[in-house]
Amino acid sequence: MRLTALDAQASKLGLSVGMTLADARARCPDLMSLPHDTEADARELERLTARMQRFTPMAAPDPPDGIMLDITACAHLFGGETALACTAAVEAGYTARHAFAAHAAAARALARYGELSPPSSLRGRRPKQSRVVCADSGLPRGFAARNDDGEEIAEEALHARIHALPIAALELPEDAQSGLRRAGLVTLGDLAARPMAALAARFGGDMVARLRAVLGEQDSPMVPQRRAEPLRASVRFAEPVARTEFVLDVIEDLLAGLCRQMEVRHLGGRRFTVRLERTDGARRQLTVETSVPSRDPARIIRLFRERIEGLADPLDPGFGFDAMALAVTRSEPLHPAQPAMDGEGGVAAEGIAVLIDRLTTRFGRDGVLRTGPCDTHIPEIAQRVLPAMQVGPAAWPDLGEGQPRPLFLLDPPQPVTAMAGVPDGPPQRLRWRGHLHEVVRAEGPERIAAEWWRKAEGHVAGGAGLTRDYYRIEDETGARYWVFRHGLYEETGEPRWYMHGLFA
Fold first, then answer.
1. Rounded Cα distance, 130 and 133, in Å
2. Which pTM was predicted?
3. φ, ψ for residue 4, nearest 5 deg
4. Residue ranges, CATH 3.30.1490.100, the chain
5. What is the pLDDT of residue 353?
6. What PANTHER family does this protein's entry cite (predicted)?
């Protein structure tokens, strides 16, 4: 395991990206580390790229931590290239390094491997996370860019800076870089002075292609990230509309068009919003949600009908509505599903989803609840109640056939008096609610350790940090119970017993 990112304090301690975690902890025993979430980084990079589109429509992510901007004919709107880069970094909330060149590959190499300092406007700021922002100015030959201090950089000076870049800027495999260093080739200028044919014969055509791209001798196109078109439809009426049924018919027509758009984009709507505009300028907004992505107009229009019928304040058209807009304000991927041979596949699950949608529309988000699993193994807090619209079908952990759980849990667990073998034997006799139960069969223990990183949770008083030994027992009448001993004998001199569940 190696370090992938550091904060300012870790850098001051001498840690570096690429260092093994073991070496880092040997140097800094109190080091706090977190696992690298590559998916979260990718989502954040996409968000930042979308935000950069306010500066230029040509913005593309440069994984893992860069953004390419083509600011041709855009920089003067923000006070110049450097001012644009500084403003973009400040608004994004990150300390960034930036570079300018006539083509994307050179700007990327300069930003990542050039001797650059953070923009002056960001010095002294505490960075959330280091990011690299590459700017492609798209300038023709003979241009004059500016450096971080606002001084002009002639084409020849920038050409010299590119030639001074280390061979690491080509991002070749380590064995290829070692071969180049052994041959005495340290910078891109050293490579550019050699015949390209000889370099390709010895180090491969990929190295030559990367070198020519950075030097500007080969195109390095960028693919901008395009913002998805909003799912929205609107209509204006020649005459004001006052009938609710006509309004629902128009909503259904708009839904049909939006559902066709979602089908092409493999999306399904989760939240649909209708905005009605009256002739007197008043506006009315209606919103319905679905528990699963949907693009079925009939199903959605039923929800709007339920929504209108359940309004405490009836939909008052006044002198009539003269405009209407429908938007899908939340969508999720929805790919075509293969139907079953009998045509009944997924009917039960879809019926439950439709029922949840209708009840939620009628009674509100907090009117229909669903249990969901929690990330804990303590039984009494292993689930929570959430709005049915917020969570999907519960993905409960698979405990295996050897550790069944009772259908009915007591909340809180009830104390019992038990006679058991020492130190960790199952109960042989117990008294619960005034009745004596002789244990004829017992299975266990299933040991559940305390969660040392949490405070005391649950209902058993005075038991923070104690281990539980669970047993499945059966008494002489055939009734089956789930009991546990709270605490080991080495943890507490006198463990207590509790009844926690009843098996069917």
1. 10
2. 0.54
3. -110, -20
4. 232-336+348-362
5. 81
6. BLR3025 PROTEIN, BLR3025 PROTEIN-RELATED
Q: What number of CA atoms fall less than 13 Å from residue 139's CA on the CB side?
A: 19
- For residue 488, the model assigns a pLDDT of 84
341 exposure class (CB count in 10 Å sphere: 0-12, 13-18, 19+) = exposed
Burial-class residue 49 by CB neighbours within 10 Å (0-12, 13-18, 19+).
buried
Q: Which residues contact 43 (CB under 8 A, 6 or more apart)?
A: none
Q: What is the pLDDT of residue 429?
A: 93
Rounded Cα–Cα distance for residues 24 and 3 (Å): 8
- For 101, the token pair is 């060149």
Backbone angles phi, psi at 448, to 5 degrees: -120, 115
The pLDDT value recorded for residue 203 is: 86
232-336+348-362, what's its fold? Dna Ligase; domain 1 (3.30.1490)
Residue closest to 155 by CA, chosen among 132, 135, 133, 137: 137
Q: In 245-344, which ranges are E strands?
A: 267-278, 283-294, 321-333
DSSP 140-184: -TT-EEE-TTS-EEEHHHHHHHHHTSBGGGG---HHHHHHHHHTT
Four-residue CA torsion sign, 403, 406, 407, 408: negative
Which residues neighbour 17 within 8 Å (Cβ) at sequence distance 6 or greater? Answer: 3, 4, 5, 6
Residue 219 and residue 212 in contact, taking contact as beta carbons nearer than 8 Å: no
DSSP 372-432: EE-S---GGGSEEEEETTTS-S-------TTS---SEEEEEEEEEEEEE-TTTPPEEEEEE
- Verify cis geometry, omega within 30 degrees of 0, for the bond prior to 423: yes
Would the CA dihedral through 432, 374, 362, 281 be positive or negative? positive
Using CA atoms, how far apart are residues 303 and 234, in angstroms rounded to an integer?
19
Chain length of the chain: 504
Class of CATH domain 1-35: alpha beta
**Alpha-carbon span 486 to 489, nearest angstrom:** 10
Q: How is the beta sheet containing 66-70 ordered, strand by strand?
A: 59-62, 66-70, 131-136, 96-101
Q: Give me the torsion for CA of 455, 459, 465, 468, rounded to 10°.
A: -140
Q: What share of the chain is helix, strand, coil (3-state, %, to 5)?
A: 30, 30, 40
- What is the structure's pLDDT at 464? 57
| Six-digit token string for 86 | 């500084």
Residue 135 per-residue DSSP state: E
Q: Tell me the two tokens of residue 179.
A: 């071969």
* φ and ψ of 21, to 5 deg: -65, -35
Dist CA 293 CA 271 (whole Å):
9
Strand partners, 42: none
